[in-house]
């Protein structure tokens, strides 16, 4: 199994979740233009629930238990497509971390283990959504983050790649989801709301 420092985990999660909560007005603005306007509140509700969970007691020292606990909160607090995708991804991440750590004695959850877990989770997510980079969804930010982390083991580089992926959705024609029915003016004026929300979350882990 893989261990995490509970204090560091709580600090990083608090920063990331607070960043996502603060992004709600901007996500809502974007989603009002290109979606049905509920993405921001959906993400904020989930983030507030996970933040309350993190602050209620020290996070577990086991990385798999930590992620599974967060996934459980997300399942019970987030509605809509975003909630389903985050829950699937987090549950798959927990399984991926378990596989990456192997049967070895307890060891720290290294960047290599996190990268392997994230790669496995991305593969699992692909079984539940047809979304690919270029479809104007949160996947446009998620894939470059996971790929870059796997290649560099550097979180800042991975977050920057996610940021660029999110920016690339400006002007991108949607092929999935509510944005399919939106005029080109909406696509050109803002990034995908889900991708933007994910970037704001990931920025907290830099």
TrEMBL record:
Gene Ontology BP term (one): glycerol catabolic process
Keywords for the protein's UniProt record, in alphabetical order: ATP-binding, Kinase, Nucleotide-binding, Transferase
Gene3D superfamilies the record matches: 1.25.40.340
Record has Plastid as a keyword: no
Superkingdom per UniProt: Eukaryota
GO molecular function terms attached to this record: ATP binding; glycerone kinase activity; triokinase activity
A single GO cellular-component term on record: cytosol
InterPro entries (alphabetical): DhaL_dom, DhaL_dom_sf, Dihydroxyacetone_Kinase
Catalytically driven reaction(s): dihydroxyacetone + ATP = dihydroxyacetone phosphate + ADP + H(+); D-glyceraldehyde + ATP = D-glyceraldehyde 3-phosphate + ADP + H(+)
Coiled-coil intervals, chain numbering: none
Pfam families listed in its UniProt record: Dak2
Keyword Cell membrane attributed: no
Positions of the DhaL domain: 7-206
Name of this chain's protein: DhaL domain-containing protein
Organism: Tolypocladium paradoxum
Lineage: Eukaryota, Fungi, Dikarya, Ascomycota, Pezizomycotina
């Amino acid at each position: 199994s893989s261990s995490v420092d509970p204090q560091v985990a709580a600090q990083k999660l608090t920063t990331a979740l607070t960043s996502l909560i603060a992004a709600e007005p901007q996500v809502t603005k974007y989603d009002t233009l290109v979606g049905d306007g509920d993405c921001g509140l959906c993400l904020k509700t989930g983030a507030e629930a996970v933040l309350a969970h993190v602050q209620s007691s020290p996070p577990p020292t086991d990385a798999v238990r930590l992620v599974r606990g967060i996934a459980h909160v997300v399942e019970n607090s987030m509605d809509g497509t975003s909630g389903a995708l985050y829950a699937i991804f987090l549950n798959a991440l927990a399984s991926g971390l378990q596989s990456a750590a192997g049967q070895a004695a307890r060891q720290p959850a290294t960047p290599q283990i996190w990268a392997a877990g994230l790669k496995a989770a991305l593969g699992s997510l692909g079984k539940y959504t047809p979304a690919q980079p270029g479809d104007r969804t949160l996947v446009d930010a998620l894939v470059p983050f996971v790929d870059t982390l796997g290649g560099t083991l550097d979180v800042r580089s991975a977050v920057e790649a996610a940021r660029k992926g999110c920016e690339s959705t400006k002007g991108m024609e949607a092929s999935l989801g509510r944005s399919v029915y939106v005029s080109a003016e909406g696509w050109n004026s803002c990034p995908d709301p889900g991708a933007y929300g994910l970037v704001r979350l990931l920025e907290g882990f830099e």
